[in-house]
Amino acid sequence: MNDDYKPRFSFEITDEQKERADRLITTYGLRKAMFGQVLDDILDLIDEYGGVVIGIIASSKLKPREIIPSLKKAEEVGEHGNNR
Fold it and tell me: Which residue range is the domain that position 25 belongs to?
């Protein structure tokens, strides 16, 4: 395997999602740091609880921030910071 090889995780997003990401996440390397953490949390949940996690997220019965630890913590901190 080539030493320069870097695995990638890619999927399609909507034009609206791209526009929002371009506007809100402008710092170089921030997307990798953020989404790497989110991916780790999702994989940990699937590893621990199995495919039911995929079903819950994919069904939109719960928002990802309600079950993904890093997103839940970010929401709590954000709400606390906005309630001054």
Answer: 15-82
